[in-house]
Amino acid sequence: MNQPHRVLPLALVLLLVAGLAGSVLKPYPIYLISLWAVYTISAIGLNLTLGFAGQISLAQASFVGFGAYATALLLPHGVPFGFTLVIGAAISFILGVLLGFPALRVQGHYLAFVTLALATIAFLVFRNESWLTHGTAGIDKIARPIPFTSDVAYMWLCLAALAVVTLGVWWLLRSPWGRAFLALRENPVRAASLGVDVRTYTLLAFAIGAGLGGVSGALFAPLGQYIEPSEFALPLSFSLLLMVVVGGSGSFLGPFLGAMVSVALPEVLRSFQDYYLLIYGVIVILLLVFSPDGIVGIIARGVARLRPTDAPVEPKP
Amino acid sequence: MMSLFVQVLISGLAIGAIYALIATGFSLLSQGSQTVNFAQGDFVVVPAFVMLAANSYGLPIWASFIVALVVAALVLGVLFKRLMVDPILPHGAMQLSIATMALSIVLQNGMLNAGGAQAFPFPGINGGLHFGNIFIDWQSVSILLAAVVAVTALNLFMGRTRIGRAIQASAQGPQVARLLGINVARMVLITFVLNAALVTLAALLVSPIYLVKFDNGIGIGLAAFSAAIIGGFNQVRGAVVGGLLLGVVQNFAATFGPTQYRDAVPMLLLIIFILFRPQGLLGRAEERRV
Fold first, then answer.
1. Residue B272 CA: distances (Å) to CA of A102, B73, B142, B276, B279
2. Is residue A317 a part of any domain in this protein?
3. Could you tell me the pLDDT band of residue A317, with boundaries at 50, 70 and 90?
4. Could you report the predicted ipTM of this complex, rounded to two decimals?
5. Domain count, chain A
6. A253 part of a folded domain
7. Which domain holds residue A171?
8. Which residues in chain A have their CB less than 8 angstroms from residue B106's CB?
9. pTM
């Protein structure tokens, strides 16, 4: 479950099934599938930070926000969607480098606190600088790029973007860089002793993760065609972190499954609306107690149990 | 102008003293058991609701405080450690941090469902003293007094008693402490109960000012994290200095600066410190080691 090359086809088939299912469904499920694709991109990015570099980022929502605002603000000026997406990703990547560089100088939870600070300040800027962001009124009538204006077509665009990101991260993890990421995940001390520059690779993992947050934001803005500041506040950061953990942090498929739970659970628990977040929080805590490697860990253990072997198979954490 | 300056300084010190108590508990937990508690702010709101509930059943506020102390020691101290920290910490400190974020969501939504979304008033101390045109309110004075007594008592306990020294030894080197015959597990448990007592006292002091609302923990938590880092993450004493400094700076910024960026002040201070002095004011540098 942890080897990217084995599960890549699985991830791509999942995307295709989601798309085909979406094409025959009603508008609301189509929206949910598109949202799943957008969240998954963001969670894949955060998984690089959390799962591979072992650092907590609480600013992923802000990076999504930079991507969303860059797209919503630049599109009306005639900048093509592809460019706004790249600009949003670049802003997030650069901010990631600028903040990660000092925070990763020292051991401990400093990146968590620096990103917590960024998330708070970014939200206040989104809310207060109305001359730029329209403040709490939000930005509406965000145009979708032609020819992806219909709900189904835009869903396919989101799924295609997720497929590109999936292939990109798969390639990244296979490259020498990615080998270093994997070494970092398995054992940072051993990685360092083998000559991996832990600090640089941790910083890279965080910055690339931030950039993917920007990509996801660029897709998010035209999806609902309306954005406002509170969508990019701390709760989304928490929610994205929990997606990675629920799916299985450090595993290739984890973000896909975690985002699916996060999008589907509110629908399943619709009759318990007031208690939804409470139940979700309890589920996450129970999962961390009993299966710290998330749903992927549960599946891996199930598969290992079904498969006859001489020696007991222990899934890697 | 002078009178306004003194008033802003005193109320800033008062709110800073409360931050100091919360940040001290936060540092104690992270020192004593690698628990970086992202729910620390919500830990302050829970005993506030307990006190309100006890008070509404007719108990006087001092008796409600004792009830809250007992509930906090059991739930936020013993149960938190037994049910969450003990099983999750072996998986990693990062997993535990994320679990405390989930706990924060659980606590906030639990309080929202149980108490409602409104801000509840909390009994405080009215009146004050006039020195010429300088007004000093009893509320701030009593907060400062209570915080000074609590911090002094905590320092004496940690430095002068057998248990206190055993707690310090367990935090600095659990293996050596165990060899010396210290029951490390019990010392860690006492640390959790101490944190519960600190947040309950903070709840008593802060609630008349901020009122009691289910999501107050967000702002309180942000201030406590900043205070702990500004003072020096690996120094419990640092939390006191960091808390007072933050309270004063935040209060001056709120009085003389743009109000819509009030919440950004602790965060800006935090970023500045991590950029230029990550070990904090009193802390020692902890370089990345392998």
1. 10, 35, 32, 6, 12
2. no
3. low
4. 0.89
5. 1
6. yes
7. 4-306
8. 277-278, 281-282, 285
9. 0.90
